[in-house]
Write a structure and sequence with these properties.
This protein is of the alpha/beta class. Helix 3 runs parallel beside helix 4. Strand 5, helix 5 and strand 6 form a beta-alpha-beta unit. This is DNA-binding response regulator.
Length: about 220
């Protein structure tokens, strides 16, 4: 059973997220919070596998709450809820250790898939979130975009062929177990590849690695 905490300052959003997750027999919402500080305290108390956090909340925003949760309850993975127009917050949240990003207006199936993915230790970027982040980076100008793409390609070119295969799977939201089955290797080998990929790309988490993969053109 995947234990989940939901944090959003809008009761209707919390109710909607709970209703969607309740349709999945392998998920159990163990706590709800209306602000970031309560989200941190309830995470410490209940130790959920996944904390679903709104990016903007009173008291302590989702980015700060995510960073505190990852620092104090590292076994809890964080997935962020965002809306269009919050691209800067998404980029900040990557640095705070968030493992996934979902659009609030997205499909219910996406929410379930995202929670399940980060519970298994994978990264999950809603396709629309990934597109928004890349588009936001592109808005800095053609020269900057070309530079970022070239830098991303240079970083991914430094990976081995197998590491690039793992990165593509990682960017697709697959867990280590799923990657192992797809590539016909043992899970320990995948873990070693993921650690090497993060080090070579100079990123802190799988979600940030997925962004590099998008920038390099390795993912649709």
């Amino acid at each position: 059973m995947i234990r989940v905490l939901i944090a959003d300052d809008e009761p209707m959003i919390r109710a909607g997220v709970r209703a969607v997750l309740s349709t999945s027999p392998d998920m159990d919402v163990v706590a709800e919070a209306g602000d970031g500080r309560d989200a941190v305290e309830l995470t410490r108390r209940h130790r959920p596998a996944v904390a679903v956090l709104d990016i903007r909340m009173p008291g302590l925003d989702g980015i700060e709450a995510a960073a505190e949760i990852r620092a104090t309850v590292p076994e809890t993975n964080v997935i962020m809820l965002t809306t269009f127009g919050e691209d800067d917050y998404i980029l900040q949240a990557l640095g705070g250790g968030a493992a996934g990003f979902l659009i609030k207006s997205g499909e219910p199936e996406e929410l379930i898939a995202g929670v399940r993915a980060v519970a298994e230790g994978a990264a999950y970027l809603s396709p629309r979130v990934a597109a928004r982040v890349v588009a936001h980076l592109a808005a800095t100008g053609a020269g900057a975009v070309a530079g970022r793409r070239a830098a991303a390609r240079a970083r991914t070119d430094a990976l081995t062929g197998r590491e690039r295969e793992v990165l593509v799977c990682l960017g697709g939201g697959l867990s280590n177990g799923q990657i192992a089955r797809r590539l016909h290797v043992v899970e320990g080998t995948v873990k070693a590849h993921v650690s090497s990929i993060l080090a070579r790309l100079e990123v802190d988490n799988r979600a940030a690695a997925a962004i590099v993969a998008h920038e390099a053109g390795l993912l649709p």
